[in-house]
Amino acid sequence: MTVVDDRIAMADANTQRLDEWFERLERMPVPEGFRVEIVGGNVHMTPQRDTHWGIIRRIIRAVEDRFGMDVTVFSDVRIDFPGHGNGFCPDVAVLREGARKDAEGHWRYQDIEFIVEVISEGTAANDYGPKKAAYATAEVPLYVIADPYQARCYVYTRPKNGDYVTRTKVDFGDTLDLTGTVADLKLGTDGFPRD
What we know:
The protein has 4 helices and 12 strands, in the order αββαβββββααβββββ. The protein is α+β, with helices and mostly antiparallel strands. The strands form 4 sheets. The chain has a 6-stranded mixed beta sheet with strand order 3-6-7-8-9-10. A hairpin with a 4-residue loop joins strand 8 and strand 9. The model is unreliable at about 1-5 (pLDDT under 50).
């Protein structure tokens, strides 16, 4: 069995457990405006803030401007990742052209071209830690963190052995140049709100 086969088998078992957890969470009284995801088997609920949404909206708009309205781009939609209990809801996930749900109705992490996470104060450690590791393990080719507290973005590329080989820092106000990556776009960050 190869490493990829091991990852797929682990993801299938993970998905069944996560389906049960998310079904229970859907029956709970989660307040409107909160996002729920499971990171490493722990449930995290975070409120959607205007700063957070302002950055997400600008990124999605840039993706749609670049790739058209038919691009498969999501915000806060569950995608299961390798590792124990990893049912993430990325702030922005762009899937490759032709991506389809699997037989159980789930989007596959193997179809992700890039992910953007916008830092929330209470869950920042997840985005910089276990989620980054899971994205690298899943070989997501491009992972961007937008951090309104530091007023900068971090661009991670070249996943290898559960981490990213390359990290580039871009301050808010500078152009986030993703040409030469799967995103192949430039994004102005001067309008990104800050906390």
